[in-house]
Each structure stands twice: as C-alpha cells, then as structure tokens.
Fold these 2 entries.
Entry 1:
Amino acid sequence: MEFRRLGKTDTYIPILGFGTWEIGGRFEPDYSKDKEAVEIIRLAIKKGMKLIDTAEIYGGGHAEEIVGEAVKEFDRNEVFIATKVWSSNLRYNDVLKALERSLKRLGLEYVDLYQIHWPNPGIPLRETMKAMEKLVLEGKTRYIGVSNFNIKDLEDAMSYLSHVDIVSNQVLYNVIDKAIEDEILPFCKKNNITVIAYRPLAKGLIVREPYKSKLESIGMNYGRTAVQVALNWVLRHENVVALVKTMDKQHLEEILGSIGWSMRKEDYDKISKMF
Ligand SMILES: NC(=O)c1ccc[n+]([C@@H]2O[C@H](COP(=O)([O-])OP(=O)(O)OC[C@H]3O[C@@H](n4cnc5c(N)ncnc54)[C@H](OP(=O)(O)O)[C@@H]3O)[C@@H](O)[C@H]2O)c1
C-alpha cells in the first residue's frame, strides 16, 4: 500500500480506502449480507486498505455496526476509521450526540476522522464547527473533515476553528466527473487539505461502454484494466486518496492493482480530455 499525508498532520493514510455506502443497506438496515460484508472489510484491511469510510446515515446506522464488527479483530491503531454526521444533525448538541451514537455502533472509544457529510445552509456553520472542535479536544475524534463542501463553505468552516484544522474534504471525483479540478482541488492543495475522492469508479459506470473500451485502450500499454486505469488516474494528484466500495473479492484484487505504477503523462492527459 502507498500512503499520503493527511492534511497538515503527521498521520499518513492509505491511498486506497474502503467505502461502505450500500453495505448493510441504503438508508434502512439490511442484515442479509452481514457475514459477507464483515469478511470483505477484513480482507481489504489485511490487503492494506486500512482506511474505512462510513457514515451514520449508511444503512440507517447498520454500516457502522458492520465496520465495528469487522475491525474488532485488529489493533485499534492499525485501522483508520472515518465516519460522518448527517446534515440534519449539525446543531451543536446534535453533533455531539451523533458521534456518541456512532461510537456505540462502531464499538470504539474514538474515531480517526469525523466528517460533516453535507453542508446545511439552515444551520449556522459556526455552531457545527465549534462542536466538531470540541470532539477533537475531548479525544472523541482524532481529526475533523468535511464532505461536499465548496470553497465558500470551506473558508467559512476554517474561520470558525481556533484550535484544530480541517484535514480533509470528501468529494466526488472520477474520470467522468472532474468538476473539483476547477477550484476545489487547487484550493485544497494550497491549504493542505486532503481530498478524499468518493465514487472513483463512478459507481461501476466506468466498466460499461463507452468508458470501458476507451480506458482499456490506455490500460493495454501497462497490462491494466479499465478499473485500474480509472483509479490510477484519480490518484495522480499528491493530495488525493480514493474510497472504493466492493462486495466482491475479485474486484478487490483488481482495485489493488490500480496502485504501484503510474501512467505516462500523455496517457493521463488523454483521459483528462476523454469524457
Ligand atoms: N461523502 C459522500 O457524499 C459520498 C457519496 C458517495 C460515496 N461516498 C463514499 O465513497 C465510497 C465509494 O463510492 P461508491 O460506493 O458510491 O462508488 P464506487 O466505489 O465508485 O463504485 C462502487 C461500485 O463499483 C463496483 N465495483 C467495485 N470494484 C469493481 C470492479 N473491480 N469491477 C467492476 N465493478 C466494481 C461495486 O460493485 P461490487 O460490490 O459488485 O464490486 C459497486 O457497485 C462509498 O462507499 C462511500 O464510502 C461518499
């Protein structure tokens, strides 16, 4: 596994993290695939994907329970657990209570990264950030981050913090949707905020046409698949790590083959203009 520095901290996180959206249900719990889910998360961790991303909203909380079950056989400091507070829980006391509930479901004393899932213009961000900061000072989370924040949201959030920094912004980024390249990616780079790219396989769309053949034509130069090319492309920037979700062991192997090599600049540029 390769690692990248988290924000301005002295912590390094794996370049490939494991995502848990639709693991344990969508917005309601689904217990039917718990055993397989725990197994695949444990396998991913053993293979080096020790960054696990979840959220209180995933599976109505059940994704966190699955993650908790999966990680209990590892040393606590061996895994990096990130979860998120939902946008309706951003009042000061609601943030504090939401993390308590998440910790209970995860079976942990603290998380490594606590993120605001989406901004909520109806709740003053100052209030939310003060609560997030308190959680770091109390040791309930090691770091705080945000998700789906634009530059204005980020600047505001940063201005409300006195003791800690925002270490990450989790945003949509893949070969098809490159919107963050205009402003968010450069802003995060300049401010030492790690970009955690979500949906890097465009939810599996890149293994369908017309994307698949085009990515494969580049992959042929390196003996790599469309998935591997797409992930390698996302991970080109030094302040980006990616979260991938899979329930399939073969897919996991394929995902791991996306790192440890890099495509030539001309191929990178070709993909940048491709879709
Ligand atoms: N902050 C946010 O608002 C936000 C939003 C969306 C996602 N996220 C996070 O980012 C994570 C990743 O995003 P995502 O789950 O939406 O999408 P994704 O990782 O881009 O794609 C997941 C889909 O790709 C398939 N897949 C994985 N590996 C594959 C392979 N080698 N070949 C073919 N298909 C493959 C998976 O199916 P199989 O299971 O069959 O492999 C799954 O259907 C989420 O799980 C979540 O943690 C955050």
Entry 2:
Amino acid sequence: MRLKDKVAIVVGAGQSPGEGMGNGRATALTFAREGAKVLCIDRDLQSARETVDMIGKNQGTAMAFKADVTKEAEIKAMVSEAHARWGRIDILHNNVGVSLSGGDAELADITEAAFDRCVAINLKSCIFACRHVLPIMRAQKSGAIINISSMAVITTYPYVAYKATKAAMVSFTEQLAYQNAQYGIRANVILPGLMNTPMAVDTRAREFKKTRAEIEAQRDAQVPLRQKMGTGWDVANAALFLASDEANFITGVTLPVDGGASVRRG
Ligand SMILES: NC(=O)c1ccc[n+]([C@@H]2O[C@H](COP(=O)([O-])OP(=O)(O)OC[C@H]3O[C@@H](n4cnc5c(N)ncnc54)[C@H](O)[C@@H]3O)[C@@H](O)[C@H]2O)c1
C-alpha cells in the first residue's frame, strides 16, 4: 500500500483500441492497487469506465470522469471533481499523448490542423492540468506530478509535432519542479521507450498495413534489453515510485524507462 490514503488524478486512464494494456490504464490500476483513490479521466468515458471496472474487481477505489483535456474548462471540472469528492489531490499523472494517431507527420507533410491538435493534446493538456492542481497542492504543501513524455525526445524520431511537444514537456517539468519545490511539490517526467501498448503497436499496424506481429518484431529488435519492448506495467511501476513517498527527495528528474535505448550510441 505505497499510496495509502492518497488521491490521484490519472489523465488518459482509458486506452486506445487494440490488444494489451496501455500505459495510462496500467498506471491507474497500479495506483489503486497501492491504496490511492483514483479519478480516471478520459475523453472516451466508456474506456475510463472499463479501467474503473477493472479496479473495482480488485477492490480499489476509482471513479471515471469524462474530460477532453485540450479544453481548460474541462480540466478545471476534473480537478474540482477530485477535490470535492476526496478533499485533496496528492498525485497528478499526465499520460495523454498522440503522434501518428493525431495526424503527426514529417515536416514536409505536417498540416496546421494536425500540428495544433498534437500541441493541444500533448502539451497544453499537461500545462493546464498542472496550472489547476497547483493551488490545491500548494495549500497542502505537498503533491507529486508525473508527466509522460517519450524517448523520442533524445532518440531520432520522424514526426515533428510529437518530438517538439514531448521535448517541451521535459523543460516544462524542470521549470515546474524548481518553481514549486518550496511548496513541497515534486514534479518528474518519464521517457517511455518502445512499449508494447495498443496505441503504439496497433495504430502502426493499421497505418502501415502490417500485422501486429510484424510491428512487434520490428520494435522488439530495436530494444537493447532482451530485445523485447517494455509494457504499460513498466511505465506504471516507475510512476508508482515517483508518486510514492519513497521518491520524497526526487524532483525535476527525467527518467527513461526504455530498456537501455538511451545509452545506445551510433
Ligand atoms: N506506447 C509507447 O511505445 C510509448 C512510447 C513513448 C511514450 N508513450 C506515451 O505514453 C502515453 C500514452 O500511452 P497509452 O498507451 O496509455 O496510450 P493510450 O492512447 O492507449 O491512452 C491514452 C488515453 O488518452 C486518451 N486521450 C487522448 N486524448 C485525450 C484528450 N484530449 N482528453 C482526454 N483523454 C484523451 C485516449 O482516449 C486514451 O484512452 C502517451 O503520452 C505517449 O506519448 C508511449
């Protein structure tokens, strides 16, 4: 029970269609298993409800809440809901993010609409969610914020909006950590590497007209550690540590969860 009596908001706690477990759902399940009360946010309410049902089967406490986090008013509503329901907010986990599925493309092909969409989903959502939980966390003099960026920040990556927004999340998290340290608030950012999630694998299978197994094999081969992608549980376990009091003195850190990809050179 490493998060006993804590209140968490997991943004993007449902998951994209496909096989297996997404990072957001695995994190919501892990936080609840460790004793947190979890508000499961998604623009797809049905998907958030599925996460809550899975938590309920393990006797955790969770609620589904529909919000499109590209809209500030909906972010405000989500924060108010968690606070009104449970009286505090200890953890904010910002998991939403899109690349190909948001229409991202190489620079020569990117459209204005796709770029704006990716910026709103990947970056604006994170910044405004932080903006609205901060007054509560500052008043509490405690809080842990975890932002999900990507290894695309430091490895080569073909699509422009994802790379730029995920890199911005790292700088933003450092600023957030420094400026809120005096209030006892910690902020850290995770860089998942190649993970076997529905969004990463099934979206690419559809887009490139390949089978799931072909995409899996291609991605597995690129991972130094055991030549096997990570899973949503790997991201969830890293987030659990950063959210828990075990990470009490850790803030402003960028943590790769990538099977060694960040130390490959050449
Ligand atoms: N899978 C990987 O290989 C990999 C690698 C690096 C980083 N990541 C990052 O992990 C995060 C997502 O992982 P996941 O597997 O949980 O993805 P996912 O797409 O399965 O889950 C994200 C959820 O966010 C929701 N969502 C999207 N836009 C939203 C919005 N505007 N408002 C509210 N909800 C919204 C979706 O409906 C979905 O249920 C992303 O930030 C992604 O960039 C993944």
